[in-house]
Design a protein that fits this description.
Length: 211
């Protein structure tokens, strides 16, 4: 099973266990909202543009609400469990959904009071670092301070520069998975270590990061 499929399955198992109305790290969304978002993303391409384009966000939100009204929560989770549309093709599912489902799985896990970090397979950490290395500058584009990402583990220590290039730099260190969550705007729930000038660190921790 690919990592995209295993993260999808684990997320759906967790959603089934928790039920609707439980918190997530996605601002304003509970577990029911997240399930509807994932179904929309794969099965309603007509409503997808609003995920990225604020001018179309109203229609996307309307379709998401309609999916919740039409499908009971277990039914929505069942739709998430089966890759839809082009993502039935395993290579596309891997290319697009490995990071998506890893992050959303952690969005649900880390919103629960008893969560603890997982030890991920080495090849998944490697894949996450590869993707993060290509996405970091975009994800950190709104950072008010310079950022240096240091990956720990995986043999080599790698560095990516992002954020403001002038002024103080903040170092964010940890496994690739924790760095990814930090850069996706989950700073408060990432176990990455953040060091540097105290004011710069605080500005980075409260910044709006992510895609």
């Amino acid at each position: 099973m690919t990592h995209a499929r295993s993260e999808r399955a684990a997320l759906c198992d967790l959603l089934d266990r928790l039920g609707p109305g439980e918190p997530t790290l996605c601002a304003g969304w509970d577990t029911y909202d997240l399930a509807a978002h994932l179904v929309l993303r794969e099965r309603r391409p007509d409503a997808m543009p609003g995920i990225a384009l604020p001018a179309l966000a109203g229609r996307t939100a309307s379709v998401q609400r309609a999916l919740k009204a039409k499908h009971p929560f277990p039914e929505l989770v069942g739709l998430v469990r089966k890759p839809g549309g082009v993502y039935r093709l395993s290579f596309l599912d891997t290319a697009v959904n490995t990071i998506e489902y890893f992050v959303h799985h952690e969005d649900v896990r880390r919103a629960q009071p008893d969560w603890a970090p997982r030890e991920l397979p080495a090849d998944l950490e490697d894949l996450i670092w590869k993707r993060l290395s290509g996405m970091a500058k975009m994800m950190l584009r709104r950072s008010p301070v310079g950022v240096v990402l240091h990956r720990r583990g995986g043999g080599a220590r790698s560095v990516v520069l992002g954020g403001a290039q002038q002024g103080p730099k903040v170092e964010v260190s940890g496994p690739a998975s924790e760095l990814l969550l930090f850069c996706f705007g989950r700073q408060e729930h990432s176990r990455a270590e953040v060091t540097g000038d105290a004011e710069a660190v605080e500005r980075l921790r409260s910044a709006r990061l992510g895609v």
